[in-house]
Design brief:
Layout lengths: L2 H14 L3 H15 L12 H17 L7 H14 L5 H17 L5 H23 L1 H6 L1
Helix pairs in contact: 1-6, 2-3, 2-5, 4-6, 5-6
Length: 142
């Protein structure tokens, strides 16, 4: 990612944070709509899960300019996801859902340049997490 992309992601996320609860509801509603099979991996009451999602996004976005600082947490998260039943093929669906949510939440502020910055950020992080969780061969298959 370029420094400009990092700035774009961070600035746009600062606009999402005030509506984090709504954004998290949108995200999970959409995820369960497009990938209903993953619903079983989540608790019935999604309140805490939504907070965890937004907290992790805040940490990752905040750490993009020093990626090495967030990689240990991303690795641990990837390992937990395996235990929950997540598979490498879930990552693209989650990424598409995240981008959809950001587009809905940011409205007219969602530009092609911003979409590319978020896509690149997600690709870097998800690629790392897939590699950590399933090995390099799974990442190459993506």
């Amino acid at each position: 990612m370029t420094p400009e992309q990092i700035t774009l992601v961070q600035q746009s996320f600062s606009k999402v944070e005030p509506i984090s609860e709504t954004a998290a509801v949108l995200f999970y509603d959409r995820l369960f709509e497009v990938a209903p099979s993953v619903r079983a991996m989540f608790p019935e009451d999604m309140t805490e899960q939504r907070k965890k999602l937004m907290g992790m996004l805040a940490a990752v976005v905040g750490g993009l300019s020093n990626l090495e600082s967030i990689l240990p947490a991303a690795s641990a998260l990837a390992q937990r996801h395996v235990a929950y039943g997540a598979k490498a093929e879930h990552y693209p669906v989650v990424g598409a859902t995240l981008l959809w949510t950001l587009e809905k939440g940011l409205g007219e502020a969602w530009t092609p340049e911003l979409a590319k910055a978020w896509t690149d950020a997600y690709a870097v992080l998800s690629g790392f997490m897939i590699s950590e969780a399933y090995g390099a061969q799974s990442q190459a298959a993506e």
